[in-house]
Write a structure and sequence with these properties.
The chain is an alpha+beta fold and about 425 residues long. The longest helix has 24 residues. The chain has three domains: about 100 residues, no CATH class; about 80 residues, no CATH class; about 160 residues, hpI Integrase, Chain A (Orthogonal Bundle), CATH 1.10.443. About 0% of the residues have low confidence. The protein has 16 helices and ten strands.
Length: about 425
Protein backbone atom coordinates (compact mmCIF):
# COMPACT_ATOMS: atom_id res chain seq x y z
CA UNK A 1 0.00 0.00 0.00
CA UNK A 2 1.52 3.29 -1.09
CA UNK A 3 1.02 6.12 1.40
CA UNK A 4 1.68 9.85 1.32
CA UNK A 5 2.00 12.21 4.27
CA UNK A 6 4.02 15.15 5.54
CA UNK A 7 6.94 15.18 7.91
CA UNK A 8 9.57 17.50 9.34
CA UNK A 9 13.06 16.93 10.71
CA UNK A 10 13.29 18.42 14.18
CA UNK A 11 17.06 18.04 14.20
CA UNK A 12 17.45 20.21 11.06
CA UNK A 13 16.66 23.65 12.47
CA UNK A 14 17.71 26.80 10.59
CA UNK A 15 18.99 29.97 12.26
CA UNK A 16 15.49 31.49 12.12
CA UNK A 17 14.12 28.54 14.14
CA UNK A 18 12.32 26.84 11.23
CA UNK A 19 12.71 23.42 9.68
CA UNK A 20 11.73 22.17 6.18
CA UNK A 21 8.39 20.49 5.58
CA UNK A 22 8.73 17.38 3.42
CA UNK A 23 6.18 15.40 1.46
CA UNK A 24 6.94 11.76 2.25
CA UNK A 25 6.07 9.11 -0.34
CA UNK A 26 6.15 5.57 1.04
CA UNK A 27 6.56 3.03 -1.76
CA UNK A 28 6.99 0.26 0.79
CA UNK A 29 7.97 -0.10 4.42
CA UNK A 30 11.63 -0.04 3.41
CA UNK A 31 11.54 2.38 0.46
CA UNK A 32 10.59 6.00 1.10
CA UNK A 33 11.19 9.31 -0.60
CA UNK A 34 11.29 12.80 0.88
CA UNK A 35 10.15 15.56 -1.48
CA UNK A 36 10.82 19.20 -0.64
CA UNK A 37 7.69 21.37 -0.42
CA UNK A 38 9.63 24.63 -0.29
CA UNK A 39 7.88 25.52 2.96
CA UNK A 40 9.37 25.88 6.44
CA UNK A 41 7.83 25.82 9.89
CA UNK A 42 8.74 26.22 13.55
CA UNK A 43 8.44 22.75 15.18
CA UNK A 44 6.04 24.12 17.82
CA UNK A 45 3.46 24.71 15.05
CA UNK A 46 3.68 21.12 13.76
CA UNK A 47 1.35 18.36 14.99
CA UNK A 48 3.49 15.24 14.88
CA UNK A 49 0.52 12.93 15.43
CA UNK A 50 -1.67 14.18 12.60
CA UNK A 51 1.24 15.27 10.37
CA UNK A 52 -0.40 18.67 9.92
CA UNK A 53 0.09 22.35 10.65
CA UNK A 54 -1.38 23.37 14.00
CA UNK A 55 -4.28 25.83 13.85
CA UNK A 56 -2.44 28.40 15.96
CA UNK A 57 0.12 28.92 13.17
CA UNK A 58 0.02 32.62 12.10
CA UNK A 59 -0.53 31.65 8.46
CA UNK A 60 -2.43 28.42 9.10
CA UNK A 61 -5.11 28.81 6.43
CA UNK A 62 -2.80 29.59 3.54
CA UNK A 63 -0.06 27.10 4.49
CA UNK A 64 -2.43 24.21 5.11
CA UNK A 65 -4.22 24.83 1.79
CA UNK A 66 -0.91 24.88 -0.05
CA UNK A 67 0.23 21.61 1.53
CA UNK A 68 -3.09 19.95 0.73
CA UNK A 69 -2.83 21.07 -2.90
CA UNK A 70 0.62 19.55 -3.46
CA UNK A 71 -0.35 16.36 -1.62
CA UNK A 72 -3.34 16.04 -3.94
CA UNK A 73 -1.04 16.60 -6.91
CA UNK A 74 1.25 13.75 -5.80
CA UNK A 75 -1.73 11.45 -5.12
CA UNK A 76 -3.00 12.08 -8.64
CA UNK A 77 0.40 11.19 -10.10
CA UNK A 78 0.43 7.89 -8.18
CA UNK A 79 -3.17 7.06 -9.18
CA UNK A 80 -2.50 7.86 -12.84
CA UNK A 81 0.60 5.66 -12.79
CA UNK A 82 -1.34 2.70 -11.39
CA UNK A 83 -4.19 3.21 -13.88
CA UNK A 84 -1.63 2.99 -16.70
CA UNK A 85 -0.52 -0.37 -15.37
CA UNK A 86 2.86 0.93 -14.24
CA UNK A 87 4.62 0.55 -10.90
CA UNK A 88 4.81 3.85 -8.96
CA UNK A 89 8.46 3.47 -8.01
CA UNK A 90 10.17 6.20 -6.05
CA UNK A 91 12.31 7.30 -9.00
CA UNK A 92 9.30 7.47 -11.33
CA UNK A 93 7.13 9.44 -8.88
CA UNK A 94 9.98 11.85 -8.04
CA UNK A 95 10.55 12.53 -11.73
CA UNK A 96 6.84 13.05 -12.51
CA UNK A 97 6.36 15.32 -9.51
CA UNK A 98 9.27 17.53 -10.59
CA UNK A 99 7.85 17.74 -14.10
CA UNK A 100 4.41 18.69 -12.81
CA UNK A 101 5.75 21.36 -10.46
CA UNK A 102 8.40 22.91 -12.69
CA UNK A 103 8.07 26.70 -13.24
CA UNK A 104 7.10 26.19 -16.90
CA UNK A 105 4.37 23.73 -15.95
CA UNK A 106 3.07 25.99 -13.20
CA UNK A 107 2.91 28.94 -15.61
CA UNK A 108 0.95 26.90 -18.14
CA UNK A 109 -1.51 25.22 -15.81
CA UNK A 110 -1.75 27.08 -12.58
CA UNK A 111 -2.99 30.60 -13.36
CA UNK A 112 -6.65 29.87 -12.60
CA UNK A 113 -5.73 27.32 -9.91
CA UNK A 114 -3.87 30.10 -8.16
CA UNK A 115 -6.82 32.41 -8.68
CA UNK A 116 -9.13 29.89 -7.00
CA UNK A 117 -6.68 29.66 -4.12
CA UNK A 118 -6.58 33.48 -3.96
CA UNK A 119 -10.36 33.64 -3.60
CA UNK A 120 -10.32 30.85 -1.00
CA UNK A 121 -7.80 32.70 1.16
CA UNK A 122 -9.96 35.84 1.02
CA UNK A 123 -13.09 34.05 2.23
CA UNK A 124 -13.86 35.33 5.71
CA UNK A 125 -11.30 38.14 5.39
CA UNK A 126 -13.36 40.40 3.15
CA UNK A 127 -17.09 41.04 2.76
CA UNK A 128 -19.17 38.95 0.37
CA UNK A 129 -19.47 41.82 -2.14
CA UNK A 130 -15.67 41.84 -2.57
CA UNK A 131 -15.71 38.07 -3.17
CA UNK A 132 -18.35 38.71 -5.85
CA UNK A 133 -15.99 41.25 -7.45
CA UNK A 134 -13.15 38.69 -7.43
CA UNK A 135 -15.42 36.09 -9.05
CA UNK A 136 -16.44 38.69 -11.63
CA UNK A 137 -12.78 39.26 -12.53
CA UNK A 138 -12.26 35.51 -12.93
CA UNK A 139 -15.21 35.37 -15.34
CA UNK A 140 -13.74 38.22 -17.42
CA UNK A 141 -10.26 36.67 -17.44
CA UNK A 142 -11.76 33.40 -18.70
CA UNK A 143 -13.67 35.38 -21.32
CA UNK A 144 -10.49 37.16 -22.40
CA UNK A 145 -8.66 33.83 -22.65
CA UNK A 146 -11.42 32.47 -24.90
CA UNK A 147 -11.52 35.70 -26.95
CA UNK A 148 -7.81 35.73 -27.74
CA UNK A 149 -7.73 31.91 -28.15
CA UNK A 150 -4.65 31.48 -26.02
CA UNK A 151 -4.20 30.25 -22.46
CA UNK A 152 -3.28 32.89 -19.89
CA UNK A 153 0.08 32.27 -18.22
CA UNK A 154 1.91 34.32 -15.61
CA UNK A 155 4.66 34.93 -18.14
CA UNK A 156 2.04 36.69 -20.33
CA UNK A 157 1.38 39.47 -17.83
CA UNK A 158 3.00 42.60 -19.25
CA UNK A 159 1.91 46.02 -20.65
CA UNK A 160 0.74 44.37 -23.88
CA UNK A 161 -1.48 41.99 -21.88
CA UNK A 162 -2.87 44.99 -19.96
CA UNK A 163 -3.72 46.87 -23.17
CA UNK A 164 -5.41 43.81 -24.66
CA UNK A 165 -7.39 43.07 -21.50
CA UNK A 166 -8.59 46.70 -21.18
CA UNK A 167 -9.64 46.67 -24.84
CA UNK A 168 -11.52 43.39 -24.34
CA UNK A 169 -13.31 44.69 -21.23
CA UNK A 170 -14.22 47.98 -22.90
CA UNK A 171 -15.50 46.68 -26.23
CA UNK A 172 -16.05 42.91 -26.13
CA UNK A 173 -16.94 41.71 -22.61
CA UNK A 174 -20.57 40.63 -22.30
CA UNK A 175 -22.54 41.82 -19.27
CA UNK A 176 -25.27 39.73 -17.57
CA UNK A 177 -27.94 41.75 -19.42
CA UNK A 178 -26.22 40.76 -22.72
CA UNK A 179 -24.94 44.29 -23.38
CA UNK A 180 -21.40 44.42 -24.78
CA UNK A 181 -18.64 46.53 -23.19
CA UNK A 182 -18.11 47.55 -19.58
CA UNK A 183 -18.21 51.07 -18.21
CA UNK A 184 -14.90 52.79 -17.61
CA UNK A 185 -15.30 52.64 -13.83
CA UNK A 186 -16.08 48.90 -14.01
CA UNK A 187 -12.99 48.30 -16.15
CA UNK A 188 -10.99 50.16 -13.52
CA UNK A 189 -12.33 47.88 -10.79
CA UNK A 190 -11.26 44.78 -12.77
CA UNK A 191 -7.71 46.14 -13.18
CA UNK A 192 -7.51 47.05 -9.51
CA UNK A 193 -8.49 43.52 -8.47
CA UNK A 194 -6.14 41.98 -11.04
CA UNK A 195 -3.26 43.87 -9.41
CA UNK A 196 -4.35 42.59 -5.99
CA UNK A 197 -4.28 39.00 -7.31
CA UNK A 198 -0.88 39.39 -9.01
CA UNK A 199 0.64 40.90 -5.86
CA UNK A 200 -0.73 37.91 -3.91
CA UNK A 201 1.00 35.51 -6.34
CA UNK A 202 4.31 37.36 -6.19
CA UNK A 203 4.17 37.53 -2.40
CA UNK A 204 3.64 33.76 -2.21
CA UNK A 205 6.39 32.98 -4.77
CA UNK A 206 3.93 31.54 -7.28
CA UNK A 207 5.54 33.64 -9.99
CA UNK A 208 8.52 35.88 -10.49
CA UNK A 209 7.97 39.61 -9.75
CA UNK A 210 5.59 41.27 -12.21
CA UNK A 211 5.82 44.99 -12.94
CA UNK A 212 2.26 46.38 -12.76
CA UNK A 213 3.30 50.03 -12.43
CA UNK A 214 1.91 50.77 -15.91
CA UNK A 215 -1.45 49.08 -15.17
CA UNK A 216 -3.57 52.20 -14.73
CA UNK A 217 -6.75 51.83 -12.70
CA UNK A 218 -9.14 53.65 -15.03
CA UNK A 219 -11.90 55.67 -13.49
CA UNK A 220 -14.60 58.11 -14.44
CA UNK A 221 -16.10 60.83 -12.33
CA UNK A 222 -19.13 59.23 -10.75
CA UNK A 223 -22.26 61.31 -10.26
CA UNK A 224 -23.63 59.51 -7.23
CA UNK A 225 -26.64 60.92 -5.45
CA UNK A 226 -27.27 61.56 -1.78
CA UNK A 227 -30.49 62.10 0.15
CA UNK A 228 -30.91 65.60 1.60
CA UNK A 229 -32.18 66.36 5.10
CA UNK A 230 -35.52 67.41 3.60
CA UNK A 231 -35.81 64.15 1.65
CA UNK A 232 -35.06 62.13 4.79
CA UNK A 233 -37.98 63.90 6.46
CA UNK A 234 -40.14 63.13 3.42
CA UNK A 235 -39.29 59.45 3.83
CA UNK A 236 -40.16 59.52 7.53
CA UNK A 237 -43.50 61.26 6.86
CA UNK A 238 -44.63 58.33 4.71
CA UNK A 239 -47.35 56.32 6.43
CA UNK A 240 -46.20 52.74 5.94
CA UNK A 241 -47.94 51.17 8.93
CA UNK A 242 -50.00 48.98 6.59
CA UNK A 243 -46.85 47.47 5.08
CA UNK A 244 -44.48 46.25 7.77
CA UNK A 245 -41.79 45.24 5.27
CA UNK A 246 -41.63 48.66 3.61
CA UNK A 247 -41.63 50.36 7.00
CA UNK A 248 -38.67 48.32 8.26
CA UNK A 249 -36.60 48.93 5.13
CA UNK A 250 -37.42 52.67 5.20
CA UNK A 251 -36.39 52.89 8.86
CA UNK A 252 -33.19 50.90 8.30
CA UNK A 253 -32.32 53.20 5.38
CA UNK A 254 -32.75 56.31 7.55
CA UNK A 255 -30.70 54.68 10.33
CA UNK A 256 -27.98 54.26 7.70
CA UNK A 257 -28.23 57.95 6.76
CA UNK A 258 -27.80 58.85 10.45
CA UNK A 259 -24.84 56.52 11.11
CA UNK A 260 -22.93 56.36 7.82
CA UNK A 261 -22.54 52.60 8.20
CA UNK A 262 -22.00 50.34 5.21
CA UNK A 263 -24.85 47.91 4.60
CA UNK A 264 -22.69 44.99 5.80
CA UNK A 265 -22.53 46.69 9.22
CA UNK A 266 -25.95 48.36 9.17
CA UNK A 267 -27.68 45.02 8.63
CA UNK A 268 -26.02 43.49 11.70
CA UNK A 269 -26.45 46.41 14.11
CA UNK A 270 -27.59 44.90 17.42
CA UNK A 271 -28.59 46.10 20.86
CA UNK A 272 -25.16 45.29 22.35
CA UNK A 273 -23.56 47.82 19.96
CA UNK A 274 -25.70 50.62 21.40
CA UNK A 275 -24.98 52.37 24.70
CA UNK A 276 -28.22 54.15 25.54
CA UNK A 277 -26.84 56.04 28.55
CA UNK A 278 -23.84 57.44 26.69
CA UNK A 279 -25.78 58.02 23.48
CA UNK A 280 -23.15 56.20 21.42
CA UNK A 281 -22.90 53.28 19.00
CA UNK A 282 -19.67 51.29 19.03
CA UNK A 283 -19.12 48.75 16.26
CA UNK A 284 -16.15 47.16 14.46
CA UNK A 285 -16.62 47.53 10.71
CA UNK A 286 -16.65 44.25 8.81
CA UNK A 287 -14.70 45.55 5.80
CA UNK A 288 -11.78 47.19 7.60
CA UNK A 289 -12.06 45.57 11.08
CA UNK A 290 -11.52 49.04 12.58
CA UNK A 291 -13.85 50.30 15.30
CA UNK A 292 -16.04 53.38 14.94
CA UNK A 293 -17.90 55.34 17.62
CA UNK A 294 -21.07 57.04 16.37
CA UNK A 295 -23.06 59.64 18.34
CA UNK A 296 -26.82 59.05 18.41
CA UNK A 297 -28.74 61.98 16.92
CA UNK A 298 -32.31 62.80 18.00
CA UNK A 299 -33.69 61.35 14.77
CA UNK A 300 -31.63 58.18 15.19
CA UNK A 301 -32.68 57.88 18.85
CA UNK A 302 -36.35 58.03 17.81
CA UNK A 303 -35.89 55.16 15.35
CA UNK A 304 -33.83 53.04 17.75
CA UNK A 305 -36.46 53.47 20.48
CA UNK A 306 -39.12 52.39 17.99
CA UNK A 307 -37.39 49.01 17.73
CA UNK A 308 -36.38 48.83 21.40
CA UNK A 309 -32.74 49.38 20.32
CA UNK A 310 -32.81 46.23 18.16
CA UNK A 311 -33.13 47.61 14.62
CA UNK A 312 -34.25 45.39 11.70
CA UNK A 313 -31.63 42.86 10.55
CA UNK A 314 -31.42 39.80 8.27
CA UNK A 315 -32.45 41.83 5.22
CA UNK A 316 -30.97 40.77 1.89
CA UNK A 317 -29.01 43.60 0.23
CA UNK A 318 -30.51 42.93 -3.22
CA UNK A 319 -34.04 43.06 -1.80
CA UNK A 320 -33.15 46.19 0.20
CA UNK A 321 -31.83 48.01 -2.87
CA UNK A 322 -34.87 47.09 -4.94
CA UNK A 323 -37.40 48.03 -2.25
CA UNK A 324 -35.83 51.35 -1.21
CA UNK A 325 -36.34 52.59 -4.77
CA UNK A 326 -40.06 51.88 -4.44
CA UNK A 327 -40.13 53.76 -1.14
CA UNK A 328 -38.24 56.68 -2.70
CA UNK A 329 -40.84 56.83 -5.45
CA UNK A 330 -43.65 56.91 -2.86
CA UNK A 331 -41.87 59.85 -1.18
CA UNK A 332 -41.70 61.71 -4.52
CA UNK A 333 -37.89 61.81 -4.58
CA UNK A 334 -38.02 62.18 -8.33
CA UNK A 335 -35.85 65.05 -9.52
CA UNK A 336 -33.93 64.26 -12.76
CA UNK A 337 -30.38 62.94 -12.39
CA UNK A 338 -28.02 62.99 -15.37
CA UNK A 339 -25.29 60.35 -15.46
CA UNK A 340 -22.49 60.03 -17.99
CA UNK A 341 -22.03 56.51 -19.34
CA UNK A 342 -18.46 55.83 -20.53
CA UNK A 343 -17.67 52.72 -22.56
CA UNK A 344 -14.23 52.89 -24.13
CA UNK A 345 -13.93 56.38 -25.64
CA UNK A 346 -17.67 56.80 -26.08
CA UNK A 347 -19.64 59.01 -23.68
CA UNK A 348 -23.43 59.12 -23.56
CA UNK A 349 -25.85 60.86 -21.20
CA UNK A 350 -28.46 58.89 -19.31
CA UNK A 351 -31.31 60.57 -17.40
CA UNK A 352 -32.83 58.90 -14.34
CA UNK A 353 -35.29 59.94 -11.67
CA UNK A 354 -33.51 60.29 -8.35
CA UNK A 355 -35.39 57.47 -6.62
CA UNK A 356 -34.11 55.08 -9.33
CA UNK A 357 -30.54 55.75 -8.18
CA UNK A 358 -31.08 55.15 -4.45
CA UNK A 359 -29.25 52.14 -2.97
CA UNK A 360 -27.82 50.99 0.34
CA UNK A 361 -24.60 52.94 -0.30
CA UNK A 362 -26.63 56.15 -0.62
CA UNK A 363 -26.89 56.06 3.19
CA UNK A 364 -23.14 56.48 3.64
CA UNK A 365 -22.89 59.27 1.07
CA UNK A 366 -25.88 61.03 2.62
CA UNK A 367 -24.39 60.92 6.11
CA UNK A 368 -21.04 62.35 5.00
CA UNK A 369 -22.55 65.03 2.74
CA UNK A 370 -25.25 66.21 5.16
CA UNK A 371 -22.81 66.48 8.06
CA UNK A 372 -20.37 68.37 5.83
CA UNK A 373 -23.13 70.79 4.77
CA UNK A 374 -23.93 71.42 8.43
CA UNK A 375 -20.36 72.66 8.85
CA UNK A 376 -18.93 69.60 10.60
CA UNK A 377 -15.15 69.37 10.19
CA UNK A 378 -14.14 66.64 7.72
CA UNK A 379 -11.74 65.08 10.25
CA UNK A 380 -14.59 64.49 12.70
CA UNK A 381 -16.84 63.03 10.00
CA UNK A 382 -14.00 60.73 8.90
CA UNK A 383 -13.52 59.49 12.47
CA UNK A 384 -17.18 58.52 12.61
CA UNK A 385 -17.50 57.15 9.08
CA UNK A 386 -14.22 55.23 9.36
CA UNK A 387 -12.60 56.62 6.20
CA UNK A 388 -8.85 56.11 6.48
CA UNK A 389 -7.80 59.13 4.41
CA UNK A 390 -9.09 62.47 3.16
CA UNK A 391 -8.97 61.49 -0.50
CA UNK A 392 -11.35 58.54 -0.20
CA UNK A 393 -13.59 60.53 2.14
CA UNK A 394 -13.97 63.44 -0.30
CA UNK A 395 -15.39 61.06 -2.90
CA UNK A 396 -18.40 60.74 -0.60
CA UNK A 397 -19.12 64.47 -0.47
CA UNK A 398 -21.79 64.95 -3.13
CA UNK A 399 -22.57 68.66 -3.50
CA UNK A 400 -22.97 70.44 -6.80
CA UNK A 401 -21.80 73.94 -7.80
CA UNK A 402 -25.08 75.59 -6.72
CA UNK A 403 -24.90 74.01 -3.26
CA UNK A 404 -21.22 74.93 -2.87
CA UNK A 405 -21.97 78.58 -3.72
CA UNK A 406 -24.89 78.75 -1.29
CA UNK A 407 -22.81 77.16 1.48
CA UNK A 408 -20.15 79.84 0.99
CA UNK A 409 -22.79 82.62 1.16
CA UNK A 410 -24.19 81.10 4.35
CA UNK A 411 -20.68 80.96 5.81
CA UNK A 412 -20.06 84.64 4.99
CA UNK A 413 -23.38 85.63 6.58
CA UNK A 414 -22.45 83.66 9.69
CA UNK A 415 -19.10 85.48 9.92
CA UNK A 416 -20.80 88.87 9.53
CA UNK A 417 -23.33 87.95 12.21
CA UNK A 418 -20.53 86.93 14.62
CA UNK A 419 -18.74 90.25 14.03
CA UNK A 420 -21.80 92.23 14.95
Amino acid sequence: MHTINFTIKKNHIKKDGTTPIYLQYNFSREKRSLIKTGKYIEPKYWNQNTKEVRRNHPDYEHLSKYLKSIKLKLENIVDECILKGKTPTISYIDEQFKLNTSPEKVHKLDFFDRYDEFIATKEGQVVSDVIKDYNSLKKHLEGFQKYRKRQIMFSDINPKFYDGFVDYLSYHAIKPNKEVGLRKSTVGKQIKNLKVFLNFCVKNNYTTPIDVSSFKTLNSKAIDIYITEEEIEDLLRLNLTQNNELEKIRDLFVIGCETGLRFSDLSRLKRHHINVNEGLIRISMKKTVSRVVIPISNRLKMLLEKYNYSPPTNIDSHHFNKTIKTIGQLANINEPVVKIKEIGNQKTEEVFLKYECISSHTCRRSFCTNQFKKGMHSLLIRKISGHSDERSFLQYIKIDEEEAAQMMIDFWLKLEKNKS
